[in-house]
Design goal:
Bound molecules: adenosine monophosphate
Helix content: 25-40%
CATH architecture of the largest domain: 2-Layer Sandwich
Largest sheet: 9 strands, antiparallel
CATH superfamily of the largest domain: ATP-grasp fold, B domain
Number of strands: 17
CATH class of the largest domain: Alpha Beta
Radius of gyration: 20 Å
Order of helices and strands: EHEEHEHHHEHEEEEEEEHEEHHEHEE
Number of helices: 10
Structural class: alpha+beta
Length: 355
């Protein structure tokens, strides 16, 4: 158990880290952040922040020397940067990053545990792309194997006639068949160092333009029926990685059961509702897990919950929500520029308390 006043290092500087740092402060810990210079909205809620590049080994070592444990809020932290931090201080183990940073690796990994991804093929050239489209067919999506998020690094191919308009982008990719899904959901779990696993309820997730728009509970019959099988895959993934902390797996609910989309070795946007809606939030339980404190209950506290993301210039009017609805929980991340397509905040609304 990390004693009171210990220091937690967080790699990455975004909103996930900001909410994680706030949960850590509540538990009496200090947080230090590390991310390349930029609009690092976590720095406002940290005791100290290293704005240094991922290649700056001296800065990484100085950062690590100040921390009792180091975790992350961003899954694309380069492995070379993580290697500059003593492994004994890292939590979760970096093998989770290694797996999740590459779409091909994560699909193969989860497939090996019995999970079912969409049909896919690796694409390293125009020729591979043509072959993948021929074998898998269209519609489909070409995705960069690394560094994609929120629908970035993705090209949709509606039919084989559109194929000419899409070229191999010059970096390793995966071509996936388009899944005819009934709904989307994620499984968010927390695993403690002693192997205990707890799950939050799975929300129905609606995406717009590849980015999460809303997460709602109850998630509906289709999702609820598929959650047990999806949880089993998620549990096995966590166990196979000997994972400690919060882990997320995204799924499509289809007529043939849950289809694995991708995993995130971290807290997740579709779990932001847990701040007000669950007995213990995903952020607090991640901190509890990496500090080897007892996990908190993940139980949902309300009959209905809706999380909605506030994206781009919409954030400029967001305070109006407070006048319209005294029960709305508004979270703004403090990002300086309300650029189109940028996650700026979210609002959570809860219904009647559960009996
Ligand atoms: P991703 O970045 O892979 O999570 O993709 C973002 C969103 O795009 C997903 O949540 C889906 O809404 C959609 N999407 C991605 N891959 C597929 C697929 N193979 N079939 C259908 N929809 C997809």
């Amino acid at each position: 158990m990390l004693p009171l006043g210990s220091t937690i290092g967080i790699l990455g500087g975004g909103q996930l880290g900001r909410m994680m740092a706030m949960a850590a402060a509540q538990l009496g810990y200090r947080v230090i952040g590390y991310a390349p210079p930029g609009d690092n909205v976590m720095d406002e809620v940290c005791a100290d922040f290293f704005a240094n590049g991922w290649g700056d080994k001296a800065a990484l070592a100085a950062f690590a020397a100040k921390c009792d444990v180091v975790t992350w809020e961003f899954e694309n932290v380069p492995l070379s940067a993580v290697a500059a931090i003593p492994e004994s201080r890292l939590c979760p183990h970096p093998r989770a990053l290694e797996t999740a940073q590459d779409r091909l690796k994560e699909k193969r990994f989860v497939e090996g545990l019995g999970g079912k991804p969409a049909p896919y093929m690796s694409v390293d050239s125009d020729r591979d792309l043509a072959m993948a489209m021929e074998r898998i067919g269209a519609p489909g999506i070409l995705k960069t194997a690394r560094d994609g998020y929120d629908g970035k690094g993705q090209w949709r191919i509606g039919s084989l006639r559109d194929a000419d308009s899409v070229r191999f982008p010059g970096k390793p990719c995966v071509y996936e068949g388009m899944v005819d899904f009934l709904a989307e959901f994620s499984v968010i779990l927390v695993r403690a160092a002693d192997g205990e696993v707890r799950f939050w309820d799975s929300t129905a997730n609606v995406h717009r333009g590849g980015m999460l728009a809303t997460s709602t509970l109850p998630a509906g019959d289709v999702i609820e029926a598929q959650v047990p099988a999806a949880r089993e895959i998620a549990r096995q993934t966590a166990e196979a990685l000997n994972y400690v902390g919060v882990l997320t797996l995204e799924f499509f609910a289809t007529a043939d059961g849950p289809v694995f989309n991708e995993m995130a070795p971290r807290v997740h946007n579709s779990g932001h509702w847990t701040i007000e809606g669950a007995a213990t939030s995903q952020f607090e339980n991640h901190i509890r897990a990496v500090c080897t404190l007892p996990l908190g209950s993940t139980e949902t506290r309300f009959e209905t919950i809706e999380l909605r993301n506030i994206v781009g210039p919409e954030a400029l009017d967001a305070y109006a929500i407070l006048a319209e609805d005294g029960e709305a929980h508004l979270h703004l991340y403090g990002k300086k520029e309300a650029r189109e397509g940028r996650k700026m905040g979210h609002v959570t609304r809860v219904g009647k308390a559960r009996a």
